């Protein structure tokens, strides 16, 4: 069937061309900024597209603005967590401590001292960074790493959880409701960090995510990022070549904690009330780290894509089925599929497609260039072979030392 063979050959040539294009694109220095701008524009116009018809209904019926705000919130936290765990390989399971400090400090300062939430966010971030410095200083100074470091961070997070539960001045186990803007001398708007509608919260969340992502990108492309990835790959070798591993691990942990507190502040200003078990609990750690793991550790787009995938999928499934507990089930199923099928995360799918296309193109070219297989039947040189046998194996004198090619 020549037509089918020709069509298949054309398709494989196009696949090979696409693989080369993807490979070249990945190596361009401007690939990340261009993709980042495209993603930013897409997220910026997404709330304005909720009336677009999709699958016989409105997009807004599948994706509410509330779901998108929550997705960007966890993307900010996951991007922050990625700086220490994805870049330097120090797997933290206690970022709920920094998230909770970022949530509580602005509200406490606003209620008790009439401090603006933006200043409270800065104070909460600095306190989270100081707490991270204590955790990292104790852990890295005594060589705690790997799974033991994860347990240490979890223990420090649980310590804060029970501290806030048992201190009545901090709201106790029931927490407290966020104050109105007039409690700290402001009116609804950006300055007060409180809005009457959901859309402004979305763009504030997008702005915070943009800042954290830019910081992560700058760190990754700097010498600091080079050292952090060297520590992640082989800490002993990095130390042997003169890299101060403790200093850079501390830097990554403190920066990560500082920006994780931003996400906590956004949480406390977006929702009506907070409780210790909600912002310091174990599930918060999962909500922070899973988007980065599913999206792709050590990448810039991984935490964003992973957060959008997990949050949107779980919320849509919960709304469709009406079972709140389904969110954890969806988390587990998606994580299992990603780990089994794409260990590098969702953002590695284009690379895997490019490699598969390149492999298919290489196999096609190899088959096209391979010599035809020998056919059975009388050899075209049979007369010469019999002549060589009759001559006592001397063969044709003009042939020299040439031998028959292997078949």
Automatic annotation (TrEMBL):
InterPro entries noted in UniProt: ABC_transp_permease, LivM-like
Q: Name one Pfam family in it.
A: BPD_transp_2
Annotated Gene Ontology cellular components are: plasma membrane
**Subcellular location per the Swiss-Prot or TrEMBL entry:** Cell membrane
Keyword Membrane among record annotations: yes
Coiled-coil ranges (or none) = none
Q: How does it sit in the membrane?
A: Multi-pass membrane protein
Q: Where is the composition biased (Basic and acidic residues)?
A: 382-407
**Molecular function GO labels:** branched-chain amino acid transmembrane transporter activity
Keyword Cell inner membrane included in the entry's annotation: no
List all membrane-crossing ranges.
Answer: 29-49, 55-75, 87-106, 118-140, 147-165, 201-219, 250-268, 288-310
Q: Which UniProt keywords apply?
A: Cell membrane, Membrane, Transmembrane, Transmembrane helix
- Principal location: membrane
Q: Which superkingdom does the taxonomy of this entry point to?
A: Archaea
User: Annotated region Disordered: where?
Assistant: 359-407
Q: Which PANTHER family match?
A: HIGH-AFFINITY BRANCHED-CHAIN AMINO ACID TRANSPORT PROTEIN BRAE, HIGH-AFFINITY BRANCHED-CHAIN AMINO ACID TRANSPORT SYSTEM PERMEASE
Official protein name in the record: Branched-chain amino acid ABC transporter permease
* Lineage of the organism: Archaea, Methanobacteriati, Methanobacteriota, Stenosarchaea group, Halobacteria
């Amino acid at each position: 069937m020549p037509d089918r063979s020709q069509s298949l050959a054309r398709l494989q040539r196009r696949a090979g061309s696409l693989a080369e294009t993807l490979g070249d694109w990945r190596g361009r220095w401007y690939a990340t900024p261009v993709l980042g701008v495209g993603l930013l524009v897409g997220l910026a116009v997404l709330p304005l597209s909720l009336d677009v018809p999709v699958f016989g209904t409105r997009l807004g019926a599948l994706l509410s603005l509330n779901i998108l705000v929550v997705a960007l919130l966890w993307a900010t936290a996951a991007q922050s967590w990625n700086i220490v765990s994805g870049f330097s390989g120090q797997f933290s399971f206690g970022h709920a401590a920094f998230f909770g400090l970022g949530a509580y400090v602005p509200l406490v300062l606003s209620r008790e001292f009439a401090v603006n939430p933006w200043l409270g966010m800065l104070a909460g971030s600095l306190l989270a960074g100081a707490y991270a410095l204590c955790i990292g200083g104790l852990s890295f100074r005594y060589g705690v790493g790997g799974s033991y470091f994860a347990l240490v961070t979890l223990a420090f997070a649980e310590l804060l959880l029970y501290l806030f539960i048992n201190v009545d001045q901090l709201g106790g186990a029931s927490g407290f409701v966020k104050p109105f803007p007039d409690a700290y001398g402001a009116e609804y708007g950006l300055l007060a960090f409180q809005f009457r509608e959901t859309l402004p919260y979305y763009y504030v969340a997008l702005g915070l995510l943009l800042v954290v992502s830019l910081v992560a990108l700058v760190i990754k492309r700097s010498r600091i990022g080079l050292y952090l990835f060297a520590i992640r790959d082989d800490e002993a070798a990095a130390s042997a070549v003169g890299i101060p591993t403790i200093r850079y691990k501390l830097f990554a942990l403190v920066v990560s904690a500082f920006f994780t507190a931003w996400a906590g502040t956004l949480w406390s200003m977006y929702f009506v009330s907070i409780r210790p078990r909600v912002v310091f609990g174990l599930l918060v750690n999962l909500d922070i780290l899973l988007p980065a793991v599913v999206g792709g550790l050590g990448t810039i787009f991984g935490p964003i894509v992973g957060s959008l995938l997990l949050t949107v999928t779980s919320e849509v499934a919960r709304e469709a089925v009406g079972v709140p507990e389904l969110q954890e089930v969806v988390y587990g199923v998606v994580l299992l599929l990603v780990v089994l099928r794409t260990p590098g995360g969702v953002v590695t799918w284009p690379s895997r497609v490019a490699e598969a296309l390149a492999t298919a193109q290489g196999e096609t070219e190899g088959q096209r260039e391979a010599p035809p297989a020998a056919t059975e039947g009388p050899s075209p040189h049979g007369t010469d072979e019999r002549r060589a046998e009759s001559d006592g194996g001397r063969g044709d004198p003009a042939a020299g030392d040439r031998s028959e090619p292997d078949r």
